[in-house]
Amino acid sequence: MTVFVVGGTGFIGTRVIPLLVARGESVVCMDINPHTANFSAFEDKVKVTRGDVTQFDDVINQMDASGADRVMNLSYNLGQDLPPHLATKLNIIGMDNCFEAARILKIKHTVYASSLAVNGQQKHFGDRLVTEDDLHRGDYQYAMHKSFNEFQAKDYVAKFGMTITGIRPANVTGPDKVRGSVDHVNCITRPARGEPVEFPFADAMRCPIHVDDIAEVFVRVIMTDKPAHQIYSSGGQVISMGDLAAMVRGFLPDARITFAQQTGGKDSSGNYLIDNTRLVSEFGVQYRPYRERVLQIINAVRQEQGLAPIAG
Ligand SMILES: NC(=O)c1ccc[n+]([C@@H]2O[C@H](COP(=O)([O-])OP(=O)(O)OC[C@H]3O[C@@H](n4cnc5c(N)ncnc54)[C@H](O)[C@@H]3O)[C@@H](O)[C@H]2O)c1
Question: Is 48 close to ligand 1, i.e. is its CB under 6 Å away?
Fold first, then answer.
């Protein structure tokens, strides 16, 4: 069958699409930047078209023409930089266009990306794991838009009996990540390039998950006809920036990673204690050890630079 992926030429989509093909699916990918990825190795199994998710005609016409029975929306603005009107068009109207087109075309299963950002800062919950049932405490544009997307999905499900599932990725990491939370990425990639890097706080907490792991989550969820829940948190590896720096130095002893202060960052950290029991028990996902992923990122950067890989 065919999966229609919106925003599939980005960071996560370029890992999701090959996994879908490996499972025997065909993919039609609609993106406003169709040329930022190259899927030519997959020949006719992956078709990439240019389309704008903010334009309902683009979404419904291309979804319809794809003949897909499953839809995934990964298009979004990963930042706070857009003026409210533009951000609303992409994040809110764009998502609604996908849900509404999926409703009209009777799509079997629609999956979209939410984010751990809906939870806001960890301090709102104390030192406990946050579950999908906790109240949202995210209070900035990206977080509020993700919260609204979750509400909108629930509304479509309640009113039309659709199957729409949201995934809340934690801090996704990988060598080519440039948008969204990137300090935990730069802590690996800059030293791997031989560049110095400084961060404000060694005790700032993060919850990274490798992009290959989150791609597998998206694929397992979309290929399930009727997941038991409407929303799943990915969770990830709980780690401080200081401990991540130490892990990087274990592979790159000359890494120049400094912190302006050792303490003071934990209290302002986003949600990092995340209960992913729901996802793990229903879909049997198991992430590769994080240390292995850090080495994988270092070696991806070294390969780009023509350097020999470091052994694990
Ligand atoms: N990367 C992370 O750490 C992370 C964490 C939590 C949630 N998420 C969510 O996962 C999803 C995918 O994230 P990503 O890291 O791959 O982002 P990305 O920015 O790399 O990819 C987004 C894609 O959307 C496309 N796009 C932008 N505007 C569009 C438009 N108007 N019409 C069609 N396509 C458009 C972009 O060209 C890009 O290919 C997003 O919803 C993001 O909020 C990501």
Answer: no
Ligand 1 centroid–CA 152 distance in Å is: 19
> Counting atoms of ligand 1 from 1, which one is nearest the CA of 52?
32
Q: How far is the CA of 66 from the centre of ligand 1 (A)?
A: 21
Atom 11 of ligand 1 has which residue's CA nearest to it? 74
Domains of the chain: 2-170+210-233 (3.40.50.720), 172-207+237-269+288-304 (3.90.25.10)
- Mutation to probe ligand 1, out of 76, 222, 233 (largest number of atoms < 8 A from CB): 76
Q: Whose CA is nearest to atom 19 of ligand 1?
A: 10
Q: What would the pLDDT profile of 221-265 be if each residue is shown by its tens digit?
A: 999 999 999 999 999 999 999 999 999 999 999 999 999 999 999
73 with 30: CB under 8 angstroms? no
Q: Which two tokens stand for residue 215?
A: 């791609």
The pLDDT tens digits for 85-124 are 999 999 999 999 999 999 999 999 999 999 999 999 999 9
